[in-house]
Amino acid sequence: MKKNVDAFGQEILAYFEGKESCEIVERNDGLVSLSEAPKSYFGKYRVWPKWQKKAIKFAKGRVLDIGCGAGRVGLYLQQKNFDVTSIDISPLAIQICKKRRLKKAFIRSIEEVYKFKDNSFETIIMFGNNFGLFGNFNSARKLLKEFNRITSNNALIIAETMDPYKTDDNTHLKYQRLNRKVGRMPMN
């Protein structure tokens, strides 16, 4: 991915540099949402959502943070003396992670976890709805097999996602039906 087409990276780079930044997401059905997400990618532990604070306590051993963004999770764990490897598909996100002194941050997509050696990790973290990176059930099955290979026995996956079925909004329900019809996971 080239830096000039790295919209996510540009968003967090702007925030990192103290410029005004927000996140605008347009679904393929035309629904547009706006958030102050860049701020959350840099949040210190004290401002994390309570469920993330609780979940991170289960991290153990060598950790893989998938979809690390600006590196907040990796930096927190690194300060706690964990051996953390952080990956993101965004070159600018990884550049920011390195500027923030995250020791092991690499440009790599979730599909490239096969590049890690067997038994490399005891914990995989996927915060920020990154469980959705699986894309569809077949991809999830394939990637979970890779996760099994690259983790030790009794490893943990600490993931955060939303339940797309917990809605009565007709716009979201229609989108879910469309996604199922074309073989995608029913996301909102």
Kindly describe this structure:
The protein is α/β, with parallel strands linked by helices and 188 residues long. Helix content is 34%, strand content 19%. It contains 7 helices and 7 strands. It has helices spanning 7-16, 37-40, 50-56, 72-79, 91-99, 137-150, 170-181, and strands spanning 23-26, 32-35, 63-66, 84-88, 105-107, 121-126, 151-159. The strands form 2 sheets. A 5-stranded parallel β-sheet has the order 5-4-3-6-7. Helix 1 (7-16) runs parallel beside helix 5 (91-99). The longest helix is centred in the C-terminal third of the chain and has 14 residues, at 137-150. 26% of the residues are buried.
Secondary structure layout:
Elements: H1 7-16, E1 23-26, E2 32-35, H2 37-40, H3 50-56, E3 63-66, H4 72-79, E4 84-88, H5 91-99, E5 105-107, E6 121-126, H6 137-150, E7 151-159, H7 170-181
Q: What's this model, at a glance?
A:
The protein has helices at 7-16, 37-40, 50-56, 72-79, 91-99, 137-150, 170-181, and strands at residues 23-26, 32-35, 63-66, 84-88, 105-107, 121-126, 151-159.
CATH homology group of the domain at 47-163: Vaccinia Virus protein VP39
Strand order of the largest sheet: 5-4-3-6-7
- State the distance separating the first and last CA atoms: 26 Å
Rg, rounded, reads 17 Å
**Known CATH architecture of the domain at 47-163:** 3-Layer(aba) Sandwich
Summarize the amount of helix as a percent range: 25-40%
- Total helices: the number is 7
Low-confidence stretches: none
Biggest sheet, in brief?
A: 5 strands, parallel
> What is the 3D form?
globular
CATH class of the domain at 47-163: Alpha Beta
CATH topology grouping of the domain at 47-163: Rossmann fold
**Strand portion:** 15-25%
- Average pLDDT number: 91
Give the helices and strands as they follow along the chain: HEEHHEHEHEEHEH
Give the tally of β-strands.
Answer: 7
Helix-and-strand structural type? alpha/beta
